[in-house]
C-alpha cells in the first residue's frame, strides 16, 4: 500500500450506535492516528475514549490470518469448498432449517445483505439471527406494533431541541458518550432544558439529571402506564391527534386507569411525590424526547416497555416533531443496518415482512431466488437451543463471540461443542468461540474493509479501508458470496465490489415500493464505484440520487442530505389504516428472586470497554479506567452479606458463578447488584458474567432479559 501522509480517510467508528465519523491516517512509518470527523453530522469532530483509542487496537497480535480446517492451515478454496459442500449436504439430508447463521451488529450492511440473501432466498430458511437480538429487538417489535414499521421517528437534533429529555434505562454518559456530550452542550446553551433519568442505578448520566427516578427493576411498564392514566386524568391529552391519527386509545387508557398512583408507586419503588413531579413535568412539556436503551430492551417485558413509552407520546401527539418523540438508541454500530437488510430471523430485506406473502414474492422476484423463507426462523436464544438439541446441524458464526456473550453461556458453549459442523469467520484466532470451530475463516477488520453502517438516527455512513488486508483475510460479504457460488448460486453472488452489493440493496429498497414501506434508499440504486467511494453520510429515506462532487451544504461534505429527516410528522403511519396503534398493556409483577438467590443482578457496560473486550482489551489506556471486573452492591446489602469494599466475592445464579471485586456504593439500588459484561476468562480468572444469565426472553421480541437475573453474593474464601 502506498502511504500518503497527507491523506486522511473518512470512515466511521466501529463501536456504538452513535455512529461517529472518524478521520484515519497512516503515517510514513505505518503508525495510524485517528481524530473525529468535524464534518460528520453525528459527532461534529467529537470522539469518546473508545473512539479516540481506535489506533491502539488494530495491531495484528492474535489475528486469524489464514483459513484453518480442524486446527491446520488450509487454502481458501479447500476451506470454502468444505463449508459449501457440508451446508449443501446438511440441507439435502435434513432440510433448510437444519442450518443457521448467527451474525453480528459489527458486520457492515453489505456483509449482512449477502448473508441474509443466501439464507432466506437460496437456502430457503430464515435461520439467520444476530447478536443485535440482544441489543434492540424489543424496540423493533415495539415500533412495528405501534407504527406498523420499524422506524425511529426522530433525529439526534431532537435531543438538542427538546425542553425535556427522559432517559430510560440508558447510561448515555458511558454507553453513547458523544450523544451525551451533545446533550450537555445543548443544555449549556439552554439551561432551561430539563433531564429526567429513569434507572435503578445512579449512573454517571445522573450527573446531568434534574431528577433521578431510581426505579425498581422492570418497573418501567407501570411507570409509563401510570403516566398515560395521569395524562388522561389531568386533561393533558392531544384529543385531536388521538382521534385523527391513532387507534386503540380508549382501551389502552381504560386498562391504564385501573392503576392508581399508590399501585404505581408500589410497582416502581418510587414515592407518589416523585411520580407526581415527573408526571406533571411530562404533561406540561410539549417538546419531550424519551430516549431508551438496553434497560428497556433487555427485559422479558421489553416490547411492552417500549409500547408503554410510545403510548404516552401518541397520547400527547409528540411523535416526529422537532424536539419531540420516542427515541431508541442502539448499542451496536450497525444494528440498524442489519435491520434494513433483514438480518434478523423474523424480517425480510428492505424492511419487508416475512409473514407478508406479497413481500415474500417481491423479494424472491427481485433476487430471482429459487426459494424464499416462508416463516420466521429461530431467534438467537432459540437458535442455540436448537443447536443444543440437534435440530441445527451446521452453524456459521460471523464476527461475534456467543460463548461469552449469550445468556446461559455455558450451555451455549456446550451446544457449539456438540454441533456436528461449526464455521466461524472472525478477525481473531482464538476467542472462546473461535476455539470450537471446525473451520476458521479469517475476516477483514475495521480499517481493512469497505462498506456502510447505519446509526441510531437512520444515518448511513461509509466505513472505508485505509490498511491493507493482512495475511489472507477477506471481507465477510466476499466470504459468504464465495460459499453461495460454491453452493450452486453463482449468478446471484457474483458481486465484484461492496459498491455492487450496496447498489443491489438500494435497488431492492425501492423495488415496487408502493409507499407502504418506510425504508427507501432506491435513489442510490445506480451508485457506481466512484459515487460509493464519495458517499457522504445521509439519512433514509433518500430524497434523491447522490451526485459525486455535489456542492456541500453549509458545513457539510459533498453530497450531504438535509440533516433532520423525521417520520410521521404528517400523522401518517405504516399500518393498513395509516393510523398509529395504542397497545393495551397491563403491568405484570414477576418475582424471580428466591431465598437461595435473593438479589437481582443487572448486567451492562462500562465506559471504556466494548462487548467481550476482544478489541478494547488491547489498549492499556482503556483498561486504566477500570482494570478488573467488579460488582456494585448497596451498603445495606454489603452489611447483610458480610462484604467489605474491595473484597473478592462470588456472585452466583442457578447456572454459574463469577469471582469479582465488590464495590460497595449507594449508587446501587438496595436488593440489586450490577456487574459489567465485558470480562471473560481470557482477562480474568473466572469472569464470564453470562455464565450466570438466564435464557429468559421477551415473548414478542425474543430479546433476553439480561438485566434481571436472580443471584446471590458471598465473600470469597480461597481454600
Ligand atoms: Fe465510537 Fe460511540 Fe464513542 Fe462515537 S460515541 S466515538 S461511535 S464509541
TrEMBL record:
Keyword Coiled coil carried by entry: no
Cofactor(s) needed for function: [4Fe-4S] cluster; Mo-bis(molybdopterin guanine dinucleotide)
The keyword Iron is assigned to this record: yes
Keywords from the UniProt entry: 4Fe-4S, Iron, Iron-sulfur, Metal-binding, Molybdenum, Nitrate assimilation, Oxidoreductase
Signal peptide region: none
Coiled coil: none
Family, per entry: Belongs to the prokaryotic molybdopterin-containing oxidoreductase family. NasA/NapA/NarB subfamily.
Designated name of the protein: Molybdopterin-dependent oxidoreductase
Species name: Mesorhizobium newzealandense
Residues of the full protein shown: 1 to 719 of 904
